[in-house]
């Protein structure tokens, strides 16, 4: 689970300094903390992104080797067909 550092005291002070009454500033701070806590499960961490990158790289390597096999196979087939046609037409 990801946690977000949030200075609630500084936030309340900022709201109070802006002219918001302290009870309302505390209520807004509590509401914001609840929102931040509820949404952290959906955030990706650096570790999540690193694992995704590693999986994607592995998948790309597999795809690259498969594609290379097909290209070489098709090239050899095409060369064989061309040689057969040349021999047949000669």
User: How many domains make up the 3D coordinates?
Assistant: 2
Separation of the first and last Cα atoms: 73 Å
Largest sheet: none
- Helix fraction by DSSP (H/I, runs of at least 4): over 70%
Q: Give the rounded overall mean pLDDT.
A: 89
Shape, principal axes of CA atoms: rod-shaped
Q: How many DSSP helices?
A: 3
Structural class: mainly alpha
Oligomer: single chain
Describe this structure in words.
The chain has 2 domains: 43 residues, no CATH class; 47 residues. The chain is 80% helix and 0% strand. The radius of gyration is 31 Å and the shape is rod-shaped.
Label this structure with key terms.
mainly alpha, rod-shaped, 0% strand, 80% helix
A few lines on this structure:
The chain is mostly helical and 90 residues long. 80% of the residues lie in helices and 0% in strands.
